[in-house]
C-alpha cells in the first residue's frame, strides 16, 4: 500500500477495515492533511525537492520545480 495520497489511502483503509481516516475532520483539515501526505512523499523519496509530479498532483502552486519544501 502506498501512502502518498490521502484520498486513496482513506478509501483503501475504509474498504479493508471500515475505518474512516477523515471522520470528524473539517474539509480544510482534510485539504491540509492531503497536502502533508504529498509533502511526506517528497521528503521521503525526493530529498524534499518539489518536482513537476508533486506540483501537478498536490496542486501546490506555492513552489516551483526543484525548490526545497519547508514546514513552519
Attribute tags:
72 residues, 53% helix
Write the H/E string, N to C.
HHH
Number of domains: 1
Biggest sheet statistics: none
Low-confidence stretches: none
Strand content: under 5%
* Class inferred from helices and paired strands: mainly alpha
Residues in helix, %: 40-55%
CA-atom Rg in angstroms = 13 Å
Mean pLDDT: 92
Q: Which word captures the global form? A: elongated
The DSSP helix count reads 3
Number of strands: 0
Q: What is the CA-CA span between the terminal residues?
A: 29 Å
Please write out the topology.
Layout (H helix, E strand, L loop, with lengths): L5 H12 L9 H19 L6 H7 L14
Short description:
With 72 residues, this protein is mostly helical. It contains 3 helices and no strands. It has helices spanning 6-17, 27-45, 52-58.
Descriptive report:
- The protein is mostly helical and 72 residues long.
- It has one domain.
- It is 53% helix and 0% strand.
- It is elongated, with a radius of gyration of 13 Å.
- It has three helices and no strands.
